Each structure stands twice: as C-alpha cells, then as structure tokens.
Amino acid sequence: MKKNSITQRVAYTSVQTAMGLVVLVWQAEDGSPQVLRIFLPSEERAVRQALEQAYPSAVPGRCAEVDELGNGIRAFIAGEQVRLTLQLLALDACSPFQRQVLQADWQIPRGWVSTYGRVARHIGRPGAARAVGRALATNPFPLVIPCHRVLAADGTIGGFQGGAALKRALLQLEGVPFDAHGKVAAERIYY
Fold this sequence. Notes:
Elements: E1 11-17, E2 20-29, E3 32-42, H1 44-54, E4 59-60, H2 64-77, H3 96-106, E5 114-115, H4 116-122, H5 129-137, E6 150-151, H6 164-173
Parallel strand pairs: 1-4, 5-6
Antiparallel strand pairs: 1-2, 2-3
Helix pairs in contact: 4-5
C-alpha cells in the first residue's frame, strides 16, 4: 500500500548563499525526491522560523539530487549562468492555473523581464494579470521558477515573497537596469 504524503517523512536541506540562507523542503517517494518548497534567502533565524511553521516535523536530510539543485541555486545567486530545471519540483501540488503560470514564468530567460499582464496573455488568459500576480506571490519554488522576473505593467517591481530589496538585487544580478525612479528600464521584455 502506498503511503499517504502526509505520513511520509519531510526533510530539508539548507544552502548558504551569497544572499543568505536558502532552505529546500523535500520528500522522497519510491527513491525519487520531490521538492515541496523553497524558502528564499534571509537571515537564518527567519528562514528557520518559516520552516518550523510550515513544516514542523521536517528533519535535516541529504539527497544527491536535492544537493545538486542546492548547488545550482548557490551558483545562480553567485551570478553564474545556470539553468535550473523543473525536474524535482512537486508541481502537481499546484492548481492547474498556477502550474501554467509557473511554467510560463520559468521560460523567461535570465536578464529578461515580463509583466503580469503579458504572462496572462501568453497563457491565454488576457485580463488575468491579478490572478497571475497571486499565482506568483504563492510560488513555492522561487529562484528555480524565477518569479522575480515578472513586473507590474508600469515597470515597478511589484510583489515578491523575499521583499522588494531581494527582487531588485536578483534583477540587478542578472543585468536588468533600473532608472532613476527605481523602475525597471529593461529593453528585453519577454512575451
């Protein structure tokens, strides 16, 4: 009999990056790990509190595939040109609409940006910019799914789980320029 995901052991792997601690929460089912959530860089205490609140029974764990993803995230935050894959992400836990949004967002290349409205039109849901914004606000896989690359229509940063300063830092790391008013002045707009 297959175990219910609620009773399966949840583990986490901590990754120290140039921007702070990142925590990957995962489960292994039939030997294949699935990342359930990624907590963004922050001071260690804040990340640990968020982890304990969302996954109180999670235990530290090691897994080659998750370690490899963690190393990719570390390299990404260090400014290296890496393409993180969706392979380990538990996308099935997301609604069909959110999956569509996340997959469209994942396609936005490094150094490019888009807007909530453009993503909505791309997935065939014109007029759903706010819904796209909500789907990205609850993105369980930030950094792997680069929701920091999606902006408000007027070029302002918009929301981000890690805060505006982290979103701006990630965009600047990718070479995205800002104007004197703090708006993105990107020439490379996707979708």
